Amino acid sequence: MPRRRKKRSLETAGKWWSESQKIEAVTTWLALGNLAQSAAVLDIPIATIKRWRYSDWWKKIEEDLRQEESLGLNARLKKVISKALDVTEDRLSNGNYQFNQKTGELVRVPVNIKDASRVANDMMNRSDIIEEKPIQQQIEKTVDDRLAKLAEDFKRFATAKEVKSEHLTIDMVK
Prior knowledge:
Layout: H1 19-32, H2 35-42, H3 46-53, H4 56-94, E1 96-100, E2 105-109, H5 113-158, E3 161-164, E4 169-172
Antiparallel strand pairs: 1-2, 3-4
Helix pairs in contact: 1-2, 1-4
């Protein structure tokens, strides 16, 4: 028995969805994380959005939007990191601000050794992490070389000749 197709409501009958509505559907879904809510907000049937969800254009738009968001976030993080490093450098060079109760003014006092050593350790650890990228590539190359050598050894073992004598059998490798 064939299934009955659900008919569109009179408001949506004959309606074609524009590219901007499709992009808005992807954007709304990314923001809300729920297809049903997105469909309700945009007044697009949930079945239509579910069908769109698995199309190639949806995936491409989703990927583009995520990449765009990631680039924006990275730019903002770089600004914050730069400002934080500037403040840290200033405090290490000129000292922390401290309120002098006698004079009622802010004065700069040298950073204590505990804080300075913590900053130094954190920066050295971050530097090590950044510099380990080429080392990781060397490790991967070494592993690839070892795997290639093992493949050659297995190939030699597979093509080995068998030599028989009266009392024992010896496998000989070429």
